[in-house]
Amino acid sequence: MFTKRLIHIAQLSAVGLTGYYLGQWDKLNSNEGTVTIDGKTLKSMPGLPIFGTVSAATPYTDSGAPKDRVSQIMKYGFPSLDNVRSYDDFVLSYDQKNRVPNWVFEHITKEHVKKNDAVDRSKCDFTPDESIHPFFRSQNSDYKGSGFDRGHMAAAGNHRLAQRHVEQTFFLTNMAPQVGEGFNRHAWNRLEKHVRKLTKVYDNVYCCTGPLYLPKKESDGKSYVKYQVIGSNSVAVPTHFYKVVVGEATDGLLDMEAYVMPNQKIPDETPVSFYMVPPETIERAAGLLFFNNLQRSKLNTINGKKVK
Predict the structure, then answer these.
(1) How many helices (H) and strands (E) does the chain have?
(2) Pairing between β-strand 84-86 and β-strand 60-62 as defined by DSSP bridges
(3) What one-character DSSP code corresponds to residue 158?
(4) Is there a contact between 153 and 176 (Cβ–Cβ < 8 Å)?
(5) Which candidate, 268, 248, 269, 267, places its Cα nearest to that of 257?
(6) pLDDT-based confidence at residue 1 (cuts at 50, 70, 90)
(7) What are the residues whose beta carbons fall under 8 Å from the beta carbon of 129, sequence distance 6 or more?
(8) How far apart are CA 215 and CA 224, in angstroms?
(9) Residue 66 confidence class, pLDDT cut points 50, 70, 90
(10) Catalytic residue positions?
């Protein structure tokens, strides 16, 4: 079963991204140059954007995080520069087509994960991120009745330094649809806890998390990438999720772990180590380069094995 998962990941190296998401502007403009979004009718002028800013033209959006904090989180490089947004304590790249993140990057320490009485998760609400163009936002209504949880990519439990930090993990830009029972609330949660435990071993832990859409061979012998979408905004339901983690010890030693989990109910007795995979298989599948400023030869171990 483990070998089959690796084959599925490797198959994506032969898959090209060939399509772009195009709006049917002729239809939108046929109604006397107007378009209705979120119940509001807006007039479109020839040659001018409907909205005051065009987010797609901005590779980096600062949502308030200090520049030195962003540099600290992204110390080992950006996996990509597509629609990057910084929050107070994490950084992400947003997938406008699928309405989920491409990747979310965190830097955590013992201080980030320890109990803080000033932080109350129960006061947090799932909230659309209004910095995203309305065309590309997900909404709570997309998840309602879908059968999927709003699954955190940057885990709320990793950001306990301040109430504002944990609240920002509830932006829908940080969410992707996850199977609830047996996955988001169980197996995925165990992996998140494992990452937090690494702060007891390493001074600094860097974690990159995101979705995957992996091919599956069907009865005709051909492989297809198929995934469900939910809600009126067609939020993509990933087939799998990944985490790539680097632990940085006091003496400078660096260790990497990489995981891929299927978005499905997983038996409780399955150890998280079962889902360890070579990091390059995730890179090929996601079309991203993780920790690109860090030469793999500088790593001490990858998935517990010495780097030669």
Answers:
(1) 8, 17
(2) parallel
(3) G
(4) yes
(5) 248
(6) low
(7) 85, 137, 171, 172, 173
(8) 5
(9) low
(10) 152
Q: Which two tokens stand for residue 42?
A: 């807006």
pLDDT in tens, 267-291: 999 999 999 999 999 999 999 999 9
In the block, tokens 């201080």 appear at 111
Stretch 219-244: mean pLDDT, rounded? 98
Mean pLDDT across the chain, nearest whole number? Answer: 85
3-state secondary structure of 187: helix
Residue with tokens 């949880």: 149
Give the whole-angstrom CA distance, residue 160 versus residue 294: 28
Give the predicted TM-score (pTM) of the model. Answer: 0.80
β-bridge mates for residue 193, sequence order: none
Nearest to 127 by CA among 77, 65, 173, 178: 173
Residue 214 in this model has a pLDDT that exceeds 60 = yes
Q: Which tokens is 245 given?
A: 């983690």
For residues 37 and 111, give the distance between their C-alpha atoms in angstroms, rounded to a whole number.
42
In one-letter notation, the amino acid at residue 141 is S
